[in-house]
Amino acid sequence: MVDLFSQYVKIKPLIDGAIQEVIDTSSFIKGKQVATFEANLASWLGTKQVISCANGTDALQIALMALDLKPGDEIIVPAFTYAATAEVIALLGLIPVMADVNTTDFNLNMDSLEGAITPRTKAIIPVHLFGQSSDMEPIMALAEKHNLSVIEDNAQSLGAEYTFSDKKNKKTGTIGHIGCTSFFPTKNLGCFGDGGAIYTDNEELAVKIRMIANHGQKVKYFHQVVGCNSRLDTIQAALLDVKLKYLAEHLAARREAADYYFRALKEATAFRLPTQNENALHTFNQFTVTVEGNERNRLQSWLKEKGVPTMIYYPLPLYKQEAFSGYVQSGFSLPNTEQLCQSVLSLPIHTEMKQDTLAYITETLLEFR
Known about the structure:
This protein is of the alpha/beta class. The protein contains 13 helices and 15 strands.
């Protein structure tokens, strides 16, 4: 599904040099490279503040902690996403409320989102799934109407862009009040372990977020709030700063691979290709097709026999996960989410895909009957 080693080999001297510099100084925690990377990522994103942390799940939890929410407050999330988005809500004693998504771009459905708002709703977490932006203009308008905070889950979509009706263009994660991302190795910008970041234009929020991520302290040993220990270590920051210089190139490689799929598979009838919204620039962290009828599992087995790996993101709606069963009424169902969980299939896509590999995958797909 990914080829992280080949990506590393291309920039090996720079990565190795960055890691060696950290080892030479032995500043493994909060070394200078952490602040440098945060500043460079903020500049790349066009946002004022980036606060790095230990992983993308921590980023979401810290963002919620910064909003002074109270137990029982409701946070709306898409039902078609990874569990971490709702997990952090439950961990904080808040209530995850699940909304449906579109079958086209896999992101929050506006009618379902609006219908999920109650007097207890305090925030929305749109997930920019698989590399494509949610429709942020109506989401932000709805949030303003109901005085809600917006935390963008940008774990799969760092580098994606969204164009507003006035032609203003912004990178995902910089549109809402807070953006969160992951540097898990397979993400658009991935480290050699775990890592994450939170970003915002609100300076007051940034101070609070940084404090929460550092045991609730601004000054060492003086703790103003109950926080947590969530740090991006210096080695990860150093290599991420190197990879950041190649992020535009890596995103272009993903889009080139996606373009090949679109061209080669345009006549395919067994599945529907992913939608690219006109007002959003996709990063293709995943290339996810929707298989017609009940043929998804048979297609996956066929591809496995031919040596083509695939993944199902995600096989079960959040509300059907045992961990979240207590947050929904018996029989609760969202039709689009149900349909997608039965039909989505993600094909290999990464920065190092070769033409012959793409040709083999697409030819194999077209042979499926």
